[in-house]
Design a protein that fits this description.
The complex is a heterodimer of chains A (about 650) and B (about 250). Chain A is an alpha/beta fold. Chain A has three domains: about 300 residues, FAD/NAD(P)-binding domain, CATH 3.50.50.60; about 140 residues, Flavocytochrome C3, Chain A, domain 1, CATH 3.90.700.10; about 120 residues, Up-down Bundle (Methane Monooxygenase Hydroxylase, Chain G, domain 1), CATH 1.20.58.100. Chain A contains 17 helices and 21 strands. Classes of the chains: A alpha/beta (about 650), B alpha+beta (about 250). The complex binds flavin-adenine dinucleotide (FAD), iron/sulfur cluster and FE2/S2 (inorganic) cluster. FE2/S2 (inorganic) cluster (FES) binds next to loops of chain B.
Chain lengths: ~650, ~250
């Protein structure tokens, strides 16, 4: 099968407009004859469901939480980018496009990224009109800050709760359509499989998490907006319920999975304190605007800090190594995430890490506090400082924060074309669940932008083209594929419930996480990856023999829910390793130790690897087949990223 | 590891909404003060699962104090003893070795128990569906900076918008009133220019839905404000009453 990304011809700046014109439209009177299934109600899903319903389609929306507004998007802190250029500091659609392509280490599509930058401005207008309370200046206009290595201030924010406010905005639009009867909302419902009829996605199978009832739902198109798979690492900044099940089940039904190894490890998270740890907490990247990252210059001093003989404030200025400022004078503490994370790992590997475990570096606000005063620092970051203190019992106004990298975001995901359609006709993927716009590394404040761009401004146009082509005839839910898929789901549930071994689901999940972090985490090499592949396969076998799943199907059963999700992670993990092994270069968040510059930076191999790796499932325990989508660069010149 | 605590838990167990529930006692041993309250329950649950017993069910997701999914009445207080803190952000250093901790679900007629500590808070959904939005569709909106909003107004609206919809205010109130939650939602829109066209209709629709869901009235004890993890102010309630009153005035 040839992968066709369907990127429109023509100059970059005209592609999207022309494409919109060329897409077929559904006659307004016919829209109500189409049913669209939207799985997930985070920024991507809620915005898509609301907008499609406004257009007149019948939407069925699903989420596993008890409310659509509890989707993981709610936790995003720092902000959302848009090329508004309100501060008049030289931003433009082209600059946002360029920064995003470069930030992604030239592993994303020009056409997609340009479109993203283009519609970014509409997102802010839309959110403000909904009543999203973004931060404002004294004159009443919107405030912007610079974020995540950008050299212009293009990030809109609502204190440290931007995701919450944006999601509540999208949720309000969704509520309006629920009230109008155009969206039927299914909460506490988990999609467990995809129904494919005649090669097209036509429905899903869900489990009601209260009653255990397994149902099928039919629709003319299915949109997966189910978020990222960072929890394959067990510990991550994702919410506890974030999972890959919907995307993975779709993959096993024919949708290609792209660039699974591209994982973002975020540099500023609160370090692990012990085995009981259930998740990691992000300290927003915005902190790097004013905080300075350092470790002691010598291993001896670091050791004394770790033993508690010295405190951070005892270390004299000349004994500190502000290593990011030293190595990257022009970007300093604002280098992109992958670079900041790798450098933190490096200094800790050298033995200069701090905190009891030695797996932490300092993020110090002393200078900012003396420059701006504590009230100004509190106004900007107060809620983050409070959160830090609650978790660590240390006051970051007085002592520097300790931070360490943690898994945060997955750039990989379901392969989609320019229309956001997967390789399976009728199946679309939006938001973090798809692979599309961030290449090998996502810049800060661009995931919220992408989720809302996909949902508010892309899918409403592109899905119409497919629907107009297939026509409004009702989907026949009596086709045997529906009953067959449902039976397979029920069989899997029974199988899981029959397992009464000796190890808990969490124990398997933790083991998987250790393997992934050790061998497929911040840096990778061929030998380790090969080892990990074997270890994951073994762990998966052991899981299906020896895990304990308690309770029954016909009740609330969190043990069963978790087991199903971890079973899918155990399959995904192996594909991530295959992908990392295949990509014999370093790019963005994917760092292969064998491929680095003399200074230890990621060394790309554009001649051989400027492609999207899209994997096709061929059957359980069969090797997946790699399809390559060549990336074509007509506008930007591929260079070695430099933040010196 | 040392410095660890041994605790006794009295936990509300209830199979489903129709079966009566009861307190069951568990030991939580070797608990680190660095654990969050939910991580402590994870440890207890791991032990239960190892014995193939049903783990204690509770709602949670973000574990960062923002999704509003976690709940739990801990020693009689929704979200536990620490002010301005959700259960997921409460750490075991707030307790002492040897403590007995009583853990219950939200108690309110409008939030029926689903299982153990999990309740059904869908009443909050219906209240927001009744009017918690600005009636605009995607596209065709003015440029964001064409709607200037004085910073103090924007900040005030933001502080109402911080509500995470957890329901602790209802659980804290002896009348199970939802006024703090509903008033926070109404206030956000009542304060902002975007909310003006539907200001009174919204207040009326949301208040009527709230009453229909069976939440109690407000008798000004301010227990809600004291327990709210996001420090939503009771001044929102005064504003809501004014909005509702004006709505009725306009109609008559
Ligand atoms: C702590 C944190 C901070 C962040 N800060 C920022 C930031 O400042 N700026 C930025 O741009 N990005 C940020 N990000 C990234 C960004 O928040 C996410 O990438 C984005 O919100 C994902 O949105 P989404 O709509 O794709 O998915 P999500 O919000 O994850 O939503 C997934 C939805 O799918 C549903 N779902 C999943 N599986 C199933 C299933 N099987 N059945 C039914 N429903 C299912 C869930 O219920 C949920 O509704 C942050 C991420 C984290 C973890
Ligand atoms: S007002 Fe406070 S207690 Fe009530 S739902 Fe909102 S955040 Fe929770
Ligand atoms: S789990 Fe999200 S607020 Fe507690």
């Amino acid at each position: 099968m040839m992968l066709d990304a369907k990127i429109p011809e023509g100059p970059l700046a005209e592609k999207w407009n022309k494409h919109k014109f060329n897409l077929k439209l559904v006659n307004p009177a016919n829209k109500r004859k189409y049913d669209i299934i939207v799985v997930g109600t985070g920024l991507a899903g809620a915005s898509a469901a609301a907008t499609l319903a406004e257009l007149g389609y019948n939407v069925k929306a699903f989420c596993f939480q008890d409310s659509p507004r509890r989707a993981h998007s709610i936790a995003a802190q720092g902000g959302i980018n848009a090329a508004k250029n309100y501060p008049n500091d030289g931003d433009s659609v082209y600059r946002l496009f360029y920064d995003t392509i470069k930030g992604g280490d030239y592993r994303s599509r020009e056409g997609n990224v340009y479109r993203l930058a283009e519609v970014s401005v509409n997102i802010i207008d839309q959110c403000v009109a909904q009543g999203v309370p973004f931060a404002r200046e004294y004159g009443g206009l919107l405030d912007n800050r610079s974020f995540g290595g950008a050299q212009v201030s293009r990030t809109f924010y609502a204190k440290g709760q931007t995701g919450q406010q944006l999601l509540l905005g999208a949720y309000s639009a969704l509520n309006r359509q629920i009230q109008a009867g155009k969206v039927k909302m299914y909460t506490r419902s988990e999609m467990l499989d995809l129904v494919v009829v005649d090669g097209k996605a036509q429905g899903i199978v869900t489990r009601n998490l209260i009653t255990g009832q397994v149902d099928t739902h039919s629709g003319h198109a299915v949109l997966l907006c189910t978020g990222g798979y960072g929890n394959v690492f067990y510990l991550s900044t994702n919410a506890m319920g974030s999972n890959v099940t919907a995307a993975w089940r779709a993959h096993k039904r024919g949708a290609f999975f792209a660039n699974p190894c591209y994982t973002q490890i975020h540099p500023t998270c609160i370090p692990v304190t012990g085995d009981h740890q259930s998740k990691l907490t992000l300290m927003s990247e915005s902190l790097r605007n004013d905080g300075r990252v350092w470790v002691p210059k010598t291993v001896e001093l670091a050791e004394r800090l770790r033993k508690g003989e010295l405190k951070a404030r005892d270390i004299k200025e000349e004994d500190r190594d502000y290593y990011l400022e030293r190595k990257y004078p022009s970007f300093g503490n604002l280098v992109p995430r992958d670079v900041a994370s790798r450098n933190a790992k490096q200094v800790c590997d050298e033995g200069r890490g701090v905190g009891k475990s030695g797996l932490a570096v300092y993020l110090d606000f002393a200078d900012a506090i003396s420059r701006l005063g504590q009230p100004a620092v509190a106004a900007k970051y107060g809620n983050l400082f409070d959160m830090y203190q609650q978790i660590t019992d240390e006051n970051p106004y007085q002592v520097p924060m300790r931070i360490y990298p943690a898994v945060h975001y997955t750039m990989g995901g379901l392969w989609v074309d320019y229309n956001l359609m997967t390789s399976l006709p009728g199946l679309y993927s939006l938001g973090e669940a798809n692979f599309s716009d961030h290449g090998a590394n996502r810049l800060g404040a661009s995931a919220l932008m992408q989720g809302l761009a996909d949902g508010y401004f892309v899918i409403p146009y592109t899905v119409g083209d497919y629907l107009a082509n297939i026509g409004p005839a009702p989907i026949d839910a009596n086709r045997p594929e529906f009953a067959q898929t449902k039976a397979e789901v029920e069989e899997r549930i029974s199988k899981l419930l029959s397992l009464k071994g000796t190890k808990t689901v969490d124990e398997y999940h933790r083991d998987l996480g250790h393997i992934m972090w050790e061998y497929c985490g911040m840096s990778r090499n061929a030998e380790g990856l090969k080892k990990a592949k074997g270890m994951i396969a073994e762990l998966r076998d052991a899981f299906w023999k020896n895990v304990i799943v308690v309770g029954e199907n016909e009740e609330v059963n969190q043990s069963l829910e978790k087991a199903g999700r971890v079973a899918d992670f155990l399959e995904l993990g192996e594909l991530m390793v295959d992908d990392a092994l295949n990509r014999e270069e370093s790019c963005g968040g994917h760092f292969r130790e064998e491929y680095q510059t003399p200074e230890g930076e990621a060394l790309r191999n554009d001649n051989e690897f400027a492609y999207v790796a899209a994997w096709e499932f061929k059957g359980n325990n069969m090797p997946e087949v790699l399809h390559k989508e060549q990336l074509v660069f007509e506008n930007v010149k591929l260079t070695q990223r430099s933040y010196k | 590891m040392s410095g660890h605590m041994n605790l006794t838990l009295k936990v509300w167990r209830q199979k489903n909404s129709t079966t009566p529930g009861k307190f069951v006692t568990y030991k939580a041993n070797d608990i680190s003060p660095d654990m969050s309250f939910l991580e402590m329950l994870d440890v207890v649950n791991e032990d239960l699962v190892k014995k193939t017993e049903d783990p204690i069910h509770f709602d949670h997701d973000c574990r960062e104090g923002i999704c509003g999914m976690c709940s739990l009445v801990i020693n009689g207080e929704p979200h536990g003893p620490k002010r301005a803190t959700t259960t997921c952000q409460l750490h075991m250093r707030s307790f002492a070795d040897g403590d007995t901790i009583v853990i219950e679900p939200w108690r309110a007629a409008a939030f029926p128990v689903v299982k153990d500590l999990v309740t059904n808070r869908s009443a909050f959904e219906r209240i927001q569906q009744a009017g918690g939005y600005v009636s605009i569709s995607t596209g065709g909106v003015p440029d964001a900076n064409e709607i200037p909003i004085p910073k103090p107004v924007a900040d005030e609206a933001f502080s109402s918008a911080e509500c995470i919809g957890c329901g602790a205010c209802v659980a804290a109130c002896k009348n199970a009133s939802a006024m703090l939650f509903v008033s926070a939602k109404i206030s956000q829109y009542a304060l902002l220019p975007q909310g003006q066209p539907e200001r009174y209709a919204r207040a009326e629709a949301m208040v009527l839905q709230m009453d229909e869901e069976g939440f109690g009235g407000c008798t000004n004890t301010y227990a809600c404000e004291a327990q709210c993890p996001k420090e939503i102010k009771v001044t929102n309630i005064a504003r809501m009453n004014r909005e509702f009153f004006n709505a009725e005035l306009i109609k008559s």
